[in-house]
Design a protein that fits this description.
three-stranded antiparallel β-sheet, TIM Barrel, single chain, alpha/beta, eight-stranded parallel β-sheet, about 375 residues, about 20% strand
Length: about 375
């Protein structure tokens, strides 16, 4: 029952593995493009797949509001609805407890949201979050948790850990296990190491299929984030996937892999693409700057993506000046390719047992 995770190579805390689901295999370390509303913004599912994506992420809260669970159920699940054949991980709505704090009321039983779209009220409990994700057909479902903002005082963080643990147990009870699908627990605790360890120890009692680290990349900064990862990395369950939620920049990812993280998601590649910010191994560029208006160079001379093989910086700059929708699309494609190619390079370095060398070179050469 559930998903299967096989670790193929290790170097220090870094791991390379295969996460097997009913809809396909995920090569880890893996990056999941964010498809919050049943779409990776601006891209066809075939484009996302061809870039090298094994799995994408959807969001319970947003899909609950639009188009509504009933409509997705009518299509037999999220995969059919959006024409994505690969695995899907769905966030439970816990992040929106933080990001939409002004539009929700939380209690020990669950959370009531006032829709950011039309003001209608929606109730989300641990059981309801599991029910929705089951209807969506999620390959990996997440427990409902209380994600606190940064900074958070100790009592606020401790109360959130307590509530999240109770909710995690309720999610586990409500979850119906099936072959090739799994449920992940989520560690909370803000930047307090003792709370993080307490959260992890309590979650381990429930035997989840994987463990996620939530409540980071919410303003605490990279130093604090890595400090928390260092504090808990050796205590994470060895034989289960480790997922760092909402992270992050290319530099965040490489450093987190060195601390045992297997899975990542972030809106940065596509959000940055829509604003003309492009990632390269030599640092990012803003294609809207006038310096690129006559450049015949590709975005990145070292990149072999279709965009870099097809278009000049001058042309993409022109697209943004004219507000042509193709501009954000090609930039999003390049950025997602950069991320997936980075993950591929990490996996190859682990396979060849030279990840530590890769990491050292990265720290010396990558410009944040």
């Amino acid at each position: 029952m559930g998903i299967q995770f096989d670790i193929l190579d290790t170097e220090g805390l870094a791991r390379r593995g295969l996460l097997k689901t009913s809809r396909g295999v995920i090569h880890t370390p893996a990056f999941m493009p964010v498809g919050t509303a049943a779409t990776v913004k601006g891209l066809l599912p075939s484009q996302v797949e061809n870039i090298g994506t094994d799995i994408i992420l959807g969001n319970t809260y947003h899909l609950m509001l639009r188009p509504g669970v009933e409509i997705i159920d009518q299509f037999g699940g999220l995969n059919n609805f959006m024409n994505w054949e690969g695995p899907i991980l769905t966030d439970s709505g816990g992040f929106q407890i933080m990001s939409l704090a002004g539009l929700r009321q939380i209690d020990n039983d669950g959370v009531t949201f006032k829709s950011h779209i039309d003001g209608s009220l929606h109730r989300l409990t641990p059981e309801k979050a599991i029910e929705i994700q089951t209807i969506l057909g999620s390959d990996i479902s997440m427990v409902l948790d209380e994600c606190v903002s940064f900074p958070a005082d100790y009592k606020t963080a401790a109360d959130a850990v307590k509530r999240s643990t109770i909710w995690a147990k309720r999610c586990k009870t409500a979850y119906y296990e099936s072959p090739g699908r799994g449920l992940f627990g989520i560690i909370q605790g803000s930047i307090y190491k003792d709370l993080r360890m307490e959260s992890l120890e309590m979650l381990n009692q429930f035997n989840f299929d994987g463990i996620a680290i939530g409540g980071l990349a919410v303003g605490e900064g990279q130093e604090n984030m890595l400090d928390i990862l260092k504090g808990i990395s050796c205590s994470l369950p060895d034989l289960k996937p480790h997922y760092l939620m909402g992270v992050g920049t290319p530099d965040d990812i490489v450093n987190a892999v060195s601390l045992g993280v297997d899975m990542f998601d972030c809106v940065l590649p596509t959000r940055s693409g829509r604003t003309g910010r492009l990632y390269t191994l030599h640092g990012h560029i803003n294609i809207k700057n006038s310096i690129h208006s006559k450049s015949e160079m590709p975005i990145d001379l070292d990149c072999d993506c279709k965009i870099c093989n097809s278009f000049s910086r001058s042309y993409i700059h022109h697209l943004f000046r004219c507000k042509e929708m193709l501009g954000p699309i090609v930039c999003s494609i390049h950025n997602l390719y950069f991320y997936q190619n980075l993950m591929k390079k990490i996996r190859i370095s682990l396979e060849k047992n030279n990840f530590k060398e890769f990491h050292q070179i990265w720290k010396k050469t990558y410009k944040k």
